[in-house]
Each structure stands twice: as C-alpha cells, then as structure tokens.
C-alpha cells in the first residue's frame, strides 16, 4: 500500500513526521531547560513555534537531499551552499524565537522581546506602577462575548515604560495564565486599574474577563 503513493508524497510525509518529532522534542527541551523552582517561565509564541517547525522541516529536506545526491559532487556542492545560507538565516531566528519569554519570580517580572539578544532585566514589584486593563472591540454587535473583545493587559512601570502582555507575539495567551499573573500582581499589592469596564451588553458569564474586570475603575 505504501508503494502506491507517489515518491514525492512519501518523501513529504516522512519529512513532515520527522520534523514534527524533532519540533516536539525541541519545545519540550526548551520548557525543561527554562523552568526553575519558585518562578513562572512562559516561552513560545505562534511566531517562535512556526519558525522552529519551518527550520526542522527544511533541515530534513536538505539532509535527505544530501543523502540522495551523495555521489554527485556538483549537486551536493550547490545544495550545501543553499543550506548554509538557510542555516545562517534561520538558525539565529529560531533561537531568538524562544528567547521571547515572560519571567515571573518572587522578586518581580521580566519580559524579553523577540529581538532582545540579552536577557531582560527583572523589574521588581516596587518598580511597577500599575496593571492597566482595557480591551478593543473586534466587531460591533448587539451582544458581546469573550471572542468579540481583545484584552489589553498592560504593565506600566515607574520609569514610564510599559508592555502589553497580550500583544500579538506574546507568550502569554491562555486564560489560566492571565488569571495567574493577575493573582500574583494583586498579591504583591500592585494597583490594578480598569480603564474601561466591560460593555453593558457583555453576555459571557463563564469568561475569565469577568474576573479580571471585577476591579472597580479608578481615576
């Protein structure tokens, strides 16, 4: 039955399977490597996951190509040149993808952006001015649910800088993660400011947004 598939389809399937296995192992290794006691370390974004899978997928294609043309010096040389170019570009980007992290410790919080090569400095709790909660409406409707709103979860520091922890390339994206950060900030007496309360026609009783926005607005 396997031989009934075209050779190109078989090669693509094998490449995809091997790439997926390496991709999962790589992610698990990153999670294990960065986790430490008494801290929350969130890594991995849609961009970093996509870059790492693409890296492994194309890497396997090149390796299979090297094996296939191992006796053809000319083709092997050309493929090695293209592989070198690919590796020099994608290798650093793949590593940078998993250097985009959110670190929560007993001392404070650190957020490292995608292109920050050096580790982010931990902002201690006393350096945090407030957590500002707001939202954007994705689509105007008569009744809103959680999916119709985009949460703005902004940490503002005393030095005037800020970071939206729900930006489009943030490692913080699950409801339990937002609730965890929210709980830790409250525990450390960080001011939580609701810039705009949820819409009056927000009808989603099970949404975690109800918990986050339960703080009374402050001026």
List keywords for this structure.
single chain; transmembrane helix; about 220 residues; 2 domains; membrane; about 40% helix; alpha+beta; 4-stranded antiparallel sheet
Description:
Helix 1 packs across helix 2 and helix 2 packs antiparallel against helix 3. A hairpin with a 4-residue loop joins strand 6 and strand 7. The protein has five helices and eight strands. Helices cover 42% and strands 19% of the residues. The strands form two sheets. Strands 1-2-3-4 form a four-stranded antiparallel sheet, with helices on one face. Strands 7-6-5-8 form a four-stranded mixed sheet, with helices on one face. The protein folds into two domains: 93 residues, no CATH class; 101 residues, no CATH class. The chain has 219 residues and is α+β, with helices and mostly antiparallel strands. The model has no long low-confidence stretch (mean pLDDT 83).
Compile the SSE list and pairings.
Layout lengths: L6 H28 L5 E4 L2 H23 L4 H25 L3 E4 L3 E5 L10 E2 L3 E10 L11 E9 L4 E3 L10 H13 L3 E4 L14 H4 L7
Parallel strand pairs: 5-8
Antiparallel strand pairs: 1-2, 2-3, 3-4, 5-6, 6-7
Helix pairs in contact: 1-2, 2-3
Summarize the structure.
With 219 residues, the chain is of the alpha+beta class. The chain has two domains: 93 residues, no CATH class; 101 residues, no CATH class.
Given helix and strand content, the structural type is alpha+beta
- In round numbers, the mean pLDDT is 83
Classify the helix fraction into a percent range. Answer: 40-55%
Shape: elongated
**What count of helical segments does DSSP give?**
5
SSE string? HEHHEEEEEEHEH
Strands of the widest sheet, in order across it, are 1-2-3-4
Biggest sheet details: 4 strands, antiparallel
Number of domains: 2
Uncertain segments of ≥5 residues (pLDDT<50)?
A: none
Roughly what fraction of the amino acids lie in strands? 15-25%
Could you tell me how far the N terminus lies from the C terminus, measured between alpha carbons in angstroms? 70 Å
Output the radius of gyration.
23 Å
> Count the strands?
8
């Amino acid at each position: 039955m396997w031989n009934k598939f075209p050779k190109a389809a078989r090669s693509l399937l094998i490449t995809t399977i091997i790439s997926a296995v390496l991709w999962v192992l790589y992610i698990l290794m990153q999670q294990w490597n960065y986790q430490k006691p008494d801290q929350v370390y969130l890594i991995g974004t849609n961009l970093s996951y996509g870059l790492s899978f693409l890296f492994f997928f194309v890497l396997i294609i090149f390796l299979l190509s090297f094996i296939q043309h191992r006796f053809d010096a000319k083709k092997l040389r050309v493929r090695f040149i293209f592989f070198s170019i690919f590796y020099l570009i994608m290798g650093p980007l793949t590593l940078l993808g998993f250097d985009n992290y959110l670190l929560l410790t007993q001392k404070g919080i650190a957020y490292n952006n995608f292109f920050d090569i050096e580790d982010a400095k931990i902002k201690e709790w006393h350096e945090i001015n407030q957590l500002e909660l707001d939202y954007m409406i994705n689509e105007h409707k008569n009744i809103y649910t959680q999916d119709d709103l985009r949460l703005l979860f902004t940490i503002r520091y005393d030095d005037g800088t800020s970071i939206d922890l729900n930006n489009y390339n943030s490692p913080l994206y699950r409801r339990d993660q937002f609730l965890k950060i929210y709980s830790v900030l409250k525990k450390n007496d960080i001011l939580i400011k609701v810039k705009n309360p949820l819409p009056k026609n927000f009808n989603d009783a099970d949404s975690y947004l109800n918990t986050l926005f339960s703080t009374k607005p402050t001026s």
